[in-house]
Each structure stands twice: as structure tokens, then as C-alpha cells.
Design a protein that fits this description.
Layout: E1 7-10, E2 13-14, E3 17-18, E4 20-24, E5 29-33, E6 45-46, E7 61-62, H1 65-68, E8 89-90, E9 96-97
Parallel strand pairs: 5-7
Antiparallel strand pairs: 1-4, 2-3, 4-5, 5-6, 8-9
């Protein structure tokens, strides 16, 4: 049995080959990998292909491999958490930030 995934995948083709795009199920984030799987290890992530820039026009944020490999305490997670008033965020440690 496969566990529920928090992403959907697509495999667009172009003259550079097939690029597997992983679209986060709850946030407009997109990562790229070389092959479709049920789960991924950090080394599987690739930099977005050049045409991934078109996704920003649809509200998606293609993630660079370097962003995906950052330790969580170094990553900017402010866009992932919204405070109770609809603005502000919480840091990765749970402390409120202004």
C-alpha cells in the first residue's frame, strides 16, 4: 500500500527530454526530479528546467535544488505558516515573529 502523497506529479516533454515535476498538494511549490517514484531522497532533486519559469505566471514557485537541500533551520518557511490574524508567521522553532 502506498502512503498518501503530499504532491502530484506531471511529466512534460520537450526537446531537452522528460522532466518530472512534483507539485505540492497544499502550497504552490514545484520541485523537479529525473524519474517518477512514490518517495524521493534529497539527491534525487534537480534544478528546474529553463521552461519552468513559465509556471510562475500561474502562481507556482519552482524550487532550485539548492533550496530543497537546505537544512530546515536555514530555510525561509514564513510563506508556509500564516498567523491567526491572517498575517505574520511563525519561525521553524515555533516562536512568533513580528
Amino acid at each position: 500500500m502506498e502512503y498518501p502523497r503530499t504532491f502530484r506529479s506531471a511529466a512534460p516533454d520537450d526537446r531537452d527530454g522528460t522532466h518530472f515535476a512534483l507539485f505540492h498538494a497544499h502550497h504552490p511549490l514545484v520541485a523537479f526530479v529525473a524519474e517518477r517514484r512514490s518517495w524521493y531522497v534529497p539527491d534525487a532533486f534537480l534544478d528546474p528546467p529553463a521552461r519552468a519559469a513559465t509556471l510562475t505566471g500561474f502562481g507556482f514557485a519552482p524550487l532550485a535544488r539548492s533550496q530543497l537541500l537546505l537544512p530546515l533551520h536555514e530555510a525561509d518557511t514564513s510563506a508556509l505558516t500564516v498567523g491567526p490574524s491572517g498575517s505574520g508567521s511563525t519561525s521553524g522553532t515555533g516562536d512568533r515573529t513580528p
